Amino acid sequence: MFAWDRQDGETETAWKAFVEYRDAPARRLPRDPDSLKMARQHAWVSRCRAYDQHWDEFRQEDLKARIERANEAFAAEALDTCYLMLSAAKQELSAIRKRQDNSPDGSAKLMSEKDAMAMAERAIKTILLLQGKPTERSEVTTDIRDMSLEDLEAKIAQLERLGK
User: Fold this and answer.
1) At what angle do helices 12-22 and 44-102 cross, to 10 degrees?
2) 56 FRET partner, CA 20 to 30 A, in 63, 67, 73, 86?
3) Residue 106: how many CA atoms within 13 Å on its side-chain side?
4) DSSP letter, residue 23
């Protein structure tokens, strides 16, 4: 039995008065002496405090569950976006290679290799974060600005394997 349930020995009149008090939008103890005596005798204030605490805990649990669902939905959408970014970066790197192969001086490009690789790296780091995996390693890493296109593509493949 909860404190806000009908108590042993509580008359129908006292119970109905308590429920009216408990469910009132703004609780105020009654002014007339008989009703005030009944409120004190049946501990309306402490019973309502327990009632409010119970519902507050319920609302907090519900709010936590809704936040978790929203976070999961956000993470799923962010993950999809990151995979789209990664795919776009891979396509751009492939296009850069084709344009360089077809361009006499190798300079025809819409996005630089570094920019495409940076986009891929940001996407992969975000994917790893969303999956709760580490994004940094303690060993020395190579600066992508000094890597060849083949090395960049190999690095993307390696990062993709880590991300899955």
Assistant:
1) 40
2) 73
3) 4
4) T
Place of tokens 């303690």: 138
Question: What length does the chain have?
Answer: 164
pLDDT in tens, 13-25: 999 999 999 999 9
Q: Please write the tens of the pLDDT for every residue from 51-78.
A: 999 999 989 999 899 988 888 888 888 8
Token pair of 27, please?
């609780």
The 10 Å Cβ neighbour count of residue 52 is 13
Distance, C-alpha 95 to centroid of its chain: 36
Range in 46-50, 56-60, 112-116 with the lowest mean pLDDT: 112-116
**Are 121 and 159 a contacting pair, CB within 8 Å?**
yes
Say if residues 143 and 114 touch (Cβ distance below 8 Å).
no
Rounded distance between C-alpha atoms, residue 157 and residue 90, angstroms: 10
